Amino acid sequence: MYLTKTDFVHYLQCPRSLWLLKHKPEIYPHKEFSDFLKKITREGYEIERYAQTLFPDGVSLPAIGNAAITKTREAVKQKVKTVFQATVQTEDGLFARADILTRNDDGTYNLYEVKSSSSIKKDKKHNHLKDACFQKIAFERSNIAIDKVFIIHTNGDYVREMEINPHKLLKKVCSTEEIKKIYDETEIEINNALSLLREKHREKSVCPCSKKTKSNHCDAFEYFNGALPERSIWEIGNLREKKLCTMLDRNIQKMEEIPEDIELNDRQQRQVQSVIQGRPIIDEERIQEMLAEMQFPLYFFDYEAASSAVPKIVGTRPWQQIPFQFSLHILGTGDTLTHKEHLNETLSGPEGVVEALCEMIGEVGSVVSWHASYEKTMNKEMAKKYPQYAKKLHNINDRTVDLEDIFKEAYTDAAFCGSTSIKKVLPILCPNLSYKDLAVQDGTQAMEQWFAMTEKRDKAARDTIRANLLEYCKLDTLAMVEIYKKIRTLSSA
After folding, report:
1. DSSP string over 117-173
2. N or C: which end of the chain has fewer CB within 10 A?
3. By C-alpha distance, which of 306, 341, 338 is closest to 322?
């Protein structure tokens, strides 16, 4: 039973969850990888291949099995200059595989960690310095002296030309000094994790995730803590851990148990009141004010955009959001409704999207989006890239209103579970509309399907994907129309 880098990250997030995974894998509640995580993993492998081209003398070692460890020992003994996938296994139980390892003249080595992100992340969920420090400690415990540690990540300023230039695509950042600062702390954490794994038995008790917000719960949360009570305090929107712990210290787990002396912001208080009263909390006067600010015709508008670590389109940057599609439902006076849409059918920049959008949106009327800051940001970026459309795009932004704001300020339902996402609001207000039966059900799938469509040679296959993409994006704007109508009816009742 060895501790890998992935295991160590797991340990830092929840030690008990790691113990259960290692000792009782047959009962561990393995969660399916999301499409987004699968995409990130694929992007990481692609970036690693480009990183290897920066070291033309590199020798690839087997990636799995005892052969990887044996071949690494042989490479070290033979003083191979650069090794890809060098693998070590320490006597005390560490297992590590370095993306790139290079030998110095004095017999020490430099270790390179490759990341697909455009910066070095240091947050709780993704700490690249901790990752690299784990690797350094594992190799040093295997008697391979590490002099410098580098993190290679994408260069966010790189603009793709016809051919990818790996030297411009990637940045090599020396992180040795930062890793020195966390070395002792990380070594203690590693030793504690190893001690945990050596324990044959542990009493089943509450795991530390009970004192974390819901998005930070481990996969084994229910195993250790039981199912959360209905309308629990963990559902409260944007609740900070400090406030959560204050409630737990007072043995409060349900929203209806929260006393008046615990301070919550306005949105949180409305959510709690919705639970207590068993109905939505609706500020009809404020809704009327917000709806009155909208000018007909109403253009319900939504973008779909794609991004990748290695830019696929000439003139774009790593992880740049590239709009490839939009849907537009136009609601006129008298509730006349028309639908327009556009989809780029080739792997190309967004100029076709911009041109179509500027043609389809008139000079008068409010543009309605959900979480409109995203669409407005895309428009600002495209106004810079295509100055011939800048005036119209800025005008569209000036006329844009955010339908989500109504659910942040004036309509709260406990059934939204603390969220104002359209996919939480829609099934409550308009249960007749659903994404469940669509072939494309979220933005990540839309992005991946668009990339797939542009690569397909078979027309029938392309047409199927095209229809699926159009159907998905169309539902996004139709959902806004129906939610708007529902809200309008409630506010005028």
Report:
1. SSS--BSSS-BHHHHHHHHHHHHHHTT--EEEEEEEEE-TT----SS--HHHHEEEE
2. C
3. 306
Predicted confidence (pLDDT) per residue in 356-383, tens digit: 999 999 999 999 999 999 999 999 999 9
Burial pattern 109-144, b for ≥16 Cβ within 10 A else e, equals bbbbbbbbbbebbeeeeebbbbbbbbbbbbbbbbeb
pLDDT tens sequence across 244-284 = 999 999 999 999 999 989 999 999 999 999 999 999 999 99
CA–CA distance, 156 with 382 (Å, rounded to integer): 17
Helix (H) / strand (E) containing 20: helix 15-23
Counting Cα atoms < 13 Å in the Cβ hemisphere of 289 gives 8
Is the model's pTM score more than 0.85?
Answer: yes
Return the amino acid letter for 50.
Answer: Y
- Name residue 115's amino acid: K
Q: Report d(CA 362, CA 80) in Å as an integer.
A: 66
> What span, in angstroms and rounded, lies between the C-alpha atoms of 90 and 102?
20
3-state secondary structure (DSSP) of residue 84: strand
